Structure formats: C-alpha cells, structure tokens
Amino acid sequence: MFVVNNFMSAVAQLLDFLLTAYMWILVGRAVISWVNPDPSNPIVRFLYEVTEPVLSRIRRWLPINMGGIDFSPMILILGIMFLQSFLIQTLRQLAMRMG
Fold first, then answer.
1. Following DSSP, what letter does each residue of 10-62 receive, concatenated?
2. From CA 28, how far away is CA 41, in angstroms rounded?
3. What is this structure's pTM?
4. Mean pLDDT in the chain?
5. If you compute the radius of gyration of the chain from its CA atoms, what whole number of angstroms results?
6. Which residues contact residue 51 at a Cβ distance below 8 angstroms, ignoring those fewer than 6 apart?
C-alpha cells in the first residue's frame, strides 16, 4: 500500500510543480505584453505558443476586455491557484489516508 501512497504523493508534487511553472510562464507573457516585443525572438515565440491556446479559449468563453486590458491571464492564474488549493491538496490527503 505504501507504493500507492508514494505514487499519489509524487503525482501531487509533480502537478504542483507543473502548475507553478505554467503560472510563471503566464506572468512572463503578461510582462512581455507591456512592451513591444520582437515577434521573432525565440523566448517571445515560446511564451506565446505555450500560453495562447489556453488564453484564446478563455477569451472565447468569457469575452472580458475592459478598455483594452486583457483579463484572461488573470482568470487563468486564478484557475491554477484553485487547482493547487483543491486538486493538489486532495491528492495529498488521499495519499496520506492510504498510507
């Protein structure tokens, strides 16, 4: 049973890391959007390619655009924080109960 416990703990830790990394990528994209970035820059292309598929879906569902400000990164960051508070904690508690 300890194997399942360790597996669930590892999955929770990995998901937590991936969600945190994606949140920082979103913050990087938001900061880059404040200036006029060079679209041929590989870092700028990476940030847009990784985040645009998710952000475009949010923009389609919730067309919140007040005065030219795009709130979709903030909504996605709030969603990530919810997942970290709910999903990750649930996985950790399940792992503890199994062990």
1. HHHHHHHHHHHHHHHHHHHHHHHHTS---TT-HHHHHHHHHHHHHHHHHHHH-
2. 14
3. 0.85
4. 90
5. 17
6. 25, 26, 29, 73
Q: By three-state DSSP, how is residue 72 classified?
A: helix
With b for 16 or more beta-carbon neighbours within 10 A and e for fewer, the 52-90 pattern comes to eeebeebbeeeeeeeeeeeebbebbbeebeeeeeeebee
| pLDDT tens, residue by residue, 34-81 | 898 899 999 999 999 999 999 999 988 887 666 777 888 999 999 999
User: How do the domains of the chain map onto residue ranges?
Assistant: 2-98
Residue 76, both tokens = 């996605």
Q: Distance of CA 9 to CAs 21, 75, 98, Å?
A: 18, 27, 11
Q: Measure the CA–CA gap between 22 and 18, rounded to whole angstroms.
A: 6
Token pair recorded at residue 4:
């399942």
The pLDDT score that the predictor gives to residue 64 is 65
